[in-house]
Amino acid sequence: MAEKSSIDGVQKAENVSQSKKLSQKAIKEIFKKAKLKKKELGFKLLQAPTTGKNGDILIVTPKKSGTAVQRNLLRRRVKEIFRQEKLYKKPVISILIAYKQAMELNFENIKNFLVDNI
Length: 118
Description:
Order of helices and strands: HHEEEHEH
Number of strands: 4
Strand content: 15-25%
CATH topology: Ribosomal Protein S5, domain 2
CATH class: Alpha Beta
Helix content: 40-55%
Oligomer: single chain
Structural class: alpha+beta
Largest sheet: 4 strands, mixed
Strand order of the largest sheet: 1-2-4-3
């Protein structure tokens, strides 16, 4: 049993290391290049050009916007919409800042906002 749990731990560590993590310096550079695209429904959308073919999304949910459960739910929804609608094919880095009003939106409202504006 001990061997199996250590194998699971190694697999989890590999999955985490494969995920894309940006440094603080890289995030600051993205924010410097970003321009305001839209502010609506408790969201503020900034966009910056990317050097690669594929775009990316950075989701910012301040603690003032809601509880941890609400913030995590919003992040999961935004990521899923980003994947489902293949918004990563657009060559921009999108920064989505969510405020308290955005925590009350349902999946369809979030989807409509992202699809229309990214």
